[in-house]
């Protein structure tokens, strides 16, 4: 479950007529031996505080899921905007303190486990009122964040202007498109037609076959504190103090960006680097999460190039076993900083999904260097 300070309400949009599937409940079609809706709920439920199902007709057909089933507040099957409005009004009445609804289509069984965390970054930064997913050049507005405060404005647009297209609404309000990778499969692949079911079965097998290669990535900014030193041998001492999601790109080998300063100290955004989660390391992540509080471990190395800062962010990891391996090198500084709650929620979801009891293999990996291409290339997935 997401640990955002304000409760987040998720809505599963199942109010369509499924004409291209021959009618009936499209999300109840079976994929891999269970309904598509089961796949969606398995991925969505851990990411939100409250989850409702927007569906019309007999609510008892969804009884086994134990979710509130809420029919469209505007009758006549008016499309996904009606479901979004329904969720906004339901949340305003039933979830005190909630500020956002996040919508999910119920025909997309491969949704990212870090979907909510990523979509909330531009919202929390104030970049725009709305955000939605994008893969390659294709936007996915049904997978989006919607401020509950706009419910009256949306209702007015739907009633008085007969607005039905999501894109018209997002263009009016303002939206940020959040990119997601399409490997090993497009996470927003939707089973929209009967022939898509066969393709989805193949994609599911592909995911299962590459299970040991499963990994997820989140870019984190690293904050380092520089203090004046009393030592005759050095002018400053350095200490990692924090990480934060949604940081702008920043090469570790470039000059640091000062964030704040005081008497004898200064804080810098030193780098933005990938925190990578691998299936083969879930045991280490679970050990970390069991600590109060859990930590992100930052490895600093002395700058080697003429233009390097004095200390360079070598890598970050959520695995204490991996971090321990770097303490053997006296030239490197390894420090743990508090793990932000939204990162802890993301890692917990990853562990809940992918953990199997296997021995952890301790190893070292090469430092992150954006100058050498894809950050995923420096490391073998699965702990190998």
Defining key terms:
Spore Coat Polysaccharide Biosynthesis Protein SpsA, Chain A, four-stranded antiparallel β-sheet, disordered C terminus, alpha/beta, 384 residues, 16 strands, seven-stranded mixed β-sheet
What does this structure look like?
This protein is an alpha/beta fold and 384 residues long. The protein folds into 2 domains: 8-209, Spore Coat Polysaccharide Biosynthesis Protein SpsA, Chain A, CATH 3.90.550; 215-383, no CATH class. It has 9 helices and 16 strands. It has helices at 36-44, 80-94, 115-124, 151-160, 166-173, 194-209, 282-290, 320-326, 341-354, and strands at residues 8-13, 30-31, 34-35, 50-54, 69-70, 100-105, 130-135, 138-147, 175-179, 215-228, 236-245, 257-262, 265-278, 295-302, 311-317, 333-338. The protein is globular, with a radius of gyration of 23 Å. 38% of the residues are buried. Residues 18-22, 359-364 and 372-384 have low confidence and may be disordered.
